[in-house]
Amino acid sequence: MRSRERLVIPYRSKVVEPISLLPREERLRRIEAAGLNVFRLRSSDVYIDLLTDSGTGAISSSQLSRAMLGDESYAGSRSFEEMQQQVKETLGFPFTIPVHQGRAAEQVLNYVMIRRHMFVPGNTHFDTTKAHIELAEGRAIDCTIDAGRSSEGTYPFKGNVAVSKLERVIEKYGARHIAYILITITCNSGGGQPVSMQNIRDVRALASAHGLPLVFDAARFAENAYFIKDREPGYQNKSIPEIVHEMFGYADACTMSAKKDAIVPMGGFIACRDEELYERLKTPAIIFEGYFTYGGMSGADMEMLAQGLREVVDEAYLTYRVGQVRRFGELLQSYGVPVVEPIGGHAVFIDGRKFFPNVPEDEFPAQLLCAELYKEGGVRAVEVGSVLVGRDPDTGENIRPSLDLCRLTIPRRVYTFEHLEYVADAIRTVFEEKGKSMKRGICFDQEAEGIRHFSSTFRYL
Ligand code: F0G
Fold first, then answer.
1. 219: burial class by Cβ within 10 Å (0-12, 13-18, 19+)?
2. Among this protein's residues, is 445 annotated catalytic?
3. Which residues make Cβ contacts (< 8 Å) with residue 201, sequence separation at least 6?
4. Could you tell me the pTM of the whole model?
5. Atom of ligand 1 nearest to the CA of 101
6. pLDDT tens digit string along 428-441?
7. Whether residue 401 has a cis bond before it, omega within 30° of 0
8. Catalytic residue, candidates 39, 71, 127, 165
9. Residue 15: closest CA among 49, 63, 73
10. What share of the chain is helix, strand, coil (3-state, %, to 5)?
11. Cα–Cα nearest to 113, from 25, 185, 53, 178
12. Which atom of ligand 1 is nearest to the CA of 220?
């Protein structure tokens, strides 16, 4: 999808939800009361909600009608069979264990695969992924390519794993101390950047050479497949389902947050090829989630998930989805706003340090931008930077990530481009009025323990 092409929207609205914009004084009052943390706002405080693309998509009429077919039997429900069959058809894995969302899949998988002091190298792990690896007493090691650590440069696959770094990790710790290799497609924390098929192939070869399993965090697998088709030589004439099949053909298992690329409000799964692994996953799945044919999902949800998997690999859907995000990012660029390039699949990421060049890096510029954007337009974005990354588990020191980003996450099939034009205009106003003139940022008022970005409060310096 190139910018000058027409965007063809392959759906129209049949049901709408009212939203409204609070007056400015009220917005200022509410964000102050929320301690400058947008997670602490009510959804009714927010006009346009770009906090996440997780569970926020609009379901289709087909998904809604399938939900009525949900079989709510505790064991062996027909809806589970339907979902397992669809996972097999779309991803190629014969065994599926439903869970209530992505992090539950991480918990169950890591319980089985990680022994104390084992390592899980990969491209930038999502925060719950890293936390679950640590909970299982393992350590995540970020082996993303150097290009993925910069907000500049147009390298098309910034989510790629640096194979040389991966090799060094395996050499240093020894293959028997590596639990598995994890590739997150697309790489969320790195800016929604895709991973190329060539890179997946290379990582697979290295994994096989050392007898290591390769696991995908598949939350945004279809968007990744679209980027491969759009950007990687040799894939232009392949269909999205073919590309998806090839990608997953290199993996042994995946965890899935179905709230993203299965377009359901709630759900997830672990899928794998090996029956022995499947058997080992069943017990922790039962303990943590529920019987292994529902795992925290209702029959109706499993039906909707299966239908969502069919819809998400539709090329017309993906062309519009990725095209809308790109066009929104390009609009911001045309205003001079520093966004991560190339523009990712599910979100546009603003470089907080460049947006507020005079705010010191340790005064949370991206978190500051989220607060200012809410004040200006009632828009909720989310920080993916210093606040989210947190502290080093060994030293307790604040980690200074290479990028401090404000993420504008686009829910699937929800907002029109006019909504996004409104957002872009609000960002432009903050940029022009405050970008250069703000010299101080914010600091913690109360820093929450553990994953701190949900409930910590901040104050202006
Ligand atoms: N992996 C990735 C790449 C994710 O982006 C997420 C969630 C998860 C795993 C965990 O899945 O939320 O279903 O438990 N990301 C959301 C986000 C929360 O806003 O990016 P979950």
1. buried
2. no
3. 250
4. 0.95
5. 13
6. 999 999 999 999 99
7. no
8. 127
9. 63
10. 45, 15, 45
11. 178
12. 3
Give per-residue pLDDT as tens, 324-343. Answer: 999 999 999 999 999 999 99
- Taking a C-beta distance cutoff of 8 angstroms, is the pair 48, 19 a contact? yes
In a domain, 281, yes or no: yes
Whether residue 409 contacts residue 53, with contact meaning beta carbons closer than 8 Å, is answered with: yes
| Tokens read off for 417 | 């481009």
Residue 413 phi/psi, 5° resolution? 65, 25
Q: Tell me how far the alpha carbon of residue 65 lies from the centroid of ligand 1, in angstroms.
A: 26
- The domain that holds 376 is classified in CATH as 3.90.1150.10
What stretches of 50-196 show up as alpha helix (H) in DSSP? 61-67, 78-91, 102-113, 127-135, 163-173
Domain that holds residue 45: 24-53+315-460
Number of domains, the chain: 2
Question: Is 63 buried (19+), middle (13-18) or exposed (0-12) by CB count in 10 A?
Answer: buried
Cα(160) to centroid of ligand 1, in Å?
19
| Pick from 277, 165, 147, 271: nearest CA to 218 | 271
Q: Cα–Cα distance between 283 and 276 in angstroms, integer?
A: 12
Instruction: Indicate which residue of 105, 147, 219, 225 is catalytic.
Output: 219
